[in-house]
């Protein structure tokens, strides 16, 4: 099968339009083609799906894909269908006739990928259907998506996944392919065991997501304004995560008031309302979704450009999962965490309410790790990857700590003042009180305890409250002083504090200056020009997506759009070379995009291309009076290729008279139709006009119409 394409790369371009495999994909695909059982662990957005989809397309038979959520199935099937690939799903949303007709299509061998929910898969009727299918068409494999759902150790256990082992007994020869983004060893072992994988090859991809920019912002008092400014500085779709439903509602409302299209999403809303908001976000009707963590699992939007955690995440693993929903398409995206000690206290309070002591301990440790991440001064990526057990080389140059390192200063003397004040207050007070004493505050509480008489009273007037806080937090964070966690947060000295008193230990702290903004690029006219085109192409994509009732990213990925705006292909041949464009997509959408680009180039007086030599040959034969059929026979090319040549020649203002190829009535009819429903997409025109009109004819008249109606 592969040989039909000469190489896997050719097959990749043919089915998905991409030029290169991402790291790991090719090896996995080769193993899958050798019918090995596989366990693939890749971070969200790593490109897992393609690893089982491409082998499924190259092997004979149907690949059964088990997927836990209807939304996920729908999304993957939409994307495959839009690439002209035979895919479908069977789930509880379909009525009897629909089910029947899909089953027929499957048995006719029209489907390469069949998505099913686990509970359906294992009912007797369906198993019988599978037996029949196996005889008739063959089963190329089982792909178990979100395989961690099989494990009680994972974060999303689904009992129905446990039954999947039956498949192993029933079809021992059919290879099984398990996929997950979960990092822990325990879950991995459990997946192998619970699914009964046989000698599986385990692929663990790097958890690094180089396209994501990580930053932590100290959450200011006016945190909403801070958020608003952040959102305004960003482009494209974004997710804002909040802890509580109330916060979700408030923030979404305030953003709307400030003219930003935002919708809420949380578990307290009605199902249908939530589903509508989710779809509007996925379809780019609104830019922003404000959500609790209920949102995310089951949405696959690859072009989320930023994720903000407005409140603290519960642990680093969930932070990585949630922030990882940005930039799944591999394009640059931003992840920002808003961090405040007030939020931390609230979270710790919630943990303290837990009855189970072990849960409390785990909870506290997890929060500690989040704080280590937020307060850390080394590369954020290194901190996260270390948490996942992966060494990282040091500096990533794509996080705030790498790009804007905080200056480190020696604050040993200040630390001595601070710690001795803790000692003189007899280790019975919290940070605010210590700072009040140091700064010589006149508060009643100070006099009440006689602390205005201490030798440390007022010795710290030279520094602001914020600076002392920065020091105090750093001391706690570095472990140089302890803070009780019984709800009172009292500072206690430890052995390091005493080393500092004795000048045996230096104290260095990272100095936080006011919030930094990412440096903006200098004005670049070429970039401005391609931005303008990109904007137009986005509009066109949205328009086509709405017509076909799919999400814009299903039509083309952001990366493809960006390449179009840069390279500005003005012929279908050049358009097909763009990464992400398959021959099928070029056929569907090529004309619309190419003419948009061509028009843009003409308006901007950019050079328009000359006809290609192949077009010129067609033109010469046309001028000799040959019909399209004759030209195609003479040149040994398909008729539709010649139609494309003629359309391109028309667009380049070459002298062509289409009346030679189409009757007066047909032409008039097509023009009438274009005038009613627009010319951006062929399919609606074709549907409207019916079987008497071919795509080629419509294309031809449309090209002529566009030329006549320019300016
Ligand atoms: P995962 O399931 O691992 O979260 P997906 O399979 O959804 O990730 O892939 C994420 C995105 O990356 C999709 O938009 C997909 O089309 C794209 N992608 C996958 N492989 C490649 C590749 N080789 N080149 C370019 N884009 C790719
Ligand atoms: Zn870094």
UniProtKB/TrEMBL annotation:
Keywords: ATP-binding, DNA damage, DNA recombination, DNA repair, DNA-binding, Helicase, Hydrolase, Isomerase, Metal-binding, Nucleotide-binding, Zinc. The keyword Membrane does not apply. This is DNA helicase RecQ. SMART domains: DEXDc, HELICc, HRDC, RQC. One of its GO terms (molecular function) is 3'-5' DNA helicase activity. Belongs to the helicase family. RecQ subfamily. Residues 29-201 form the Helicase ATP-binding domain. Transmembrane segments: none annotated. One of its GO terms (biological process) is DNA replication. Residues 223-371 form the Helicase C-terminal domain. Pfam families: DEAD (PF00270), Helicase_C (PF00271), HRDC (PF00570), HTH_40 (PF14493), RecQ_Zn_bind (PF16124), RQC (PF09382). Its EC number is 5.6.2.4.
């Amino acid at each position: 099968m592969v040989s039909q394409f000469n190489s896997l790369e050719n097959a990749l371009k043919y089915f998905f339009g991409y030029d290169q495999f991402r790291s790991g994909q090719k090896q996995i695909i080769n193993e899958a083609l050798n019918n090995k059982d596989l366990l693939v662990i890749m971070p969200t957005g790593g490109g897992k799906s393609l690893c089982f989809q491409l082998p499924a397309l190259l092997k004979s038979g149907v690949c059964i894909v088990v997927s836990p959520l209807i939304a996920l199935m729908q999304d993957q099937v939409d994307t495959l269908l839009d690439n002209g690939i035979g895919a479908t799903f069977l789930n509880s949303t379909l009525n009897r006739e629909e089910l029947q007709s899909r089953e027929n299509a499957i048995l006719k061998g029209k489907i390469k990928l069949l998505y099913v929910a686990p509970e359906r898969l294992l009912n007797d009727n369906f198993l019988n259907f599978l037996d029949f299918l196996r005889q008739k068409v063959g089963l190329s494999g089982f792909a178990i998506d979100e395989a961690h759902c099989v494990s009680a150790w994972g974060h999303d256990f689904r009992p129905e996944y446990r039954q999947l082992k039956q498949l192993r007994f029933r079809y021992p020869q059919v290879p099984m392919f398990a996929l997950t983004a979960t990092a822990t060893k325990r879950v991995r072992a459990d997946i192998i065991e619970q699914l009964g994988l046989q000698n599986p090859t385990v692929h663990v991809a790097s958890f690094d997501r180089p396209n994501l920019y990580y930053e932590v912002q100290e959450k200011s008092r006016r945190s909403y304004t801070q958020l608003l400014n952040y959102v305004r500085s960003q482009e494209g779709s974004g997710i804002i995560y909040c802890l509580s439903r109330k916060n979700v509602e408030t923030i979404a409302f305030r953003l709307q008031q400030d003219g930003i299209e935002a919708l809420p999403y949380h578990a307290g809303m009605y199902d249908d309302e939530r589903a509508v908001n989710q779809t509007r976000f996925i379809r780019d009707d609104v830019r922003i979704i404000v959500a609790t963590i209920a949102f995310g699992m089951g949405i696959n939007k690859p072009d989320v450009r930023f994720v903000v955690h407005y409140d603290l995440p519960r642990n680093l693993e969930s932070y990585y999962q949630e922030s990882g929903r940005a930039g799944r398409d591999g394009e640059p995206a931003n992840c920002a965490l808003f961090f405040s000690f007030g939020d931390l206290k609230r979270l710790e309070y919630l943990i303290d309410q837990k009855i189970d002591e072990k849960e409390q301990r785990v909870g506290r440790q997890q929060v500690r790790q989040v704080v280590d991440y937020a307060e850390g001064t080394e590369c954020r990526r290194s901190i996260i990857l270390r948490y996942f057990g992966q060494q990282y080389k040091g500096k990533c140059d794509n996080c705030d700590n790498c790009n804007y390192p905080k200056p480190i200063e020696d604050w040993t003397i200040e630390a001595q003042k601070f710690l001795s004040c803790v000692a003189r207050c007899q280790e019975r007070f919290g940070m605010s009180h210590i700072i009040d004493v140091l700064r010589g505050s006149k508060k009643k509480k100070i006099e009440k305890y006689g602390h205005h008489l201490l030798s440390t009273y007022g010795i710290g007037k030279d520094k602001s409250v914020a600076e002392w806080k920065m020091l105090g937090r750093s001391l706690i964070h570095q472990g140089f002083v302890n803070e009780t966690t019984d709800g009172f947060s009292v500072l206690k000295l430890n052995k390091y504090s005493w080393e500092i008193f004795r000048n045996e230990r230096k104290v260095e702290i990272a100095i936080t200056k006011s919030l930094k903004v990412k440096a903006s690029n200098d004005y670049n006219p070429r970039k401005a020009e391609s931005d303008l085109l990109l904007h137009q192409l986005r509009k066109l994509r949205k328009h086509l997506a709405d017509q076909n009732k799919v999400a814009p990213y299903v039509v083309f990925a952001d990366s493809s759009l960006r390449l179009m705006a840069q390279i500005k292909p003005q012929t279908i041949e050049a358009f097909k070379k763009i990464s992400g464009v398959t021959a099928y997509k070029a056929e569907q959408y090529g004309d619309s995009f190419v003419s948009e680009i061509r028009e843009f180039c003409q308006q901007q007086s950019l050079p328009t291309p000359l006809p290609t030599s192949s077009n010129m040959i067609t033109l010469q034969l046309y001028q000799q009076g040959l019909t399209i059929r004759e030209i195609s026979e003479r040149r040994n090319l398909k008729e539709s290729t010649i139609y494309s040549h003629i359309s391109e020649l028309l667009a380049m203002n070459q002298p062509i008279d289409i009346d030679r190829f189409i009757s007066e009535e047909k032409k008039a009819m097509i023009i009438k139709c274009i005038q009613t429903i627009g010319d951006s997409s062929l399919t609606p025109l074709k549907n409207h006009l019916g079987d008497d009109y071919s795509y080629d004819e419509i294309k031809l008249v449309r090209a002529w119409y566009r030329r006549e109606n320019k300016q």
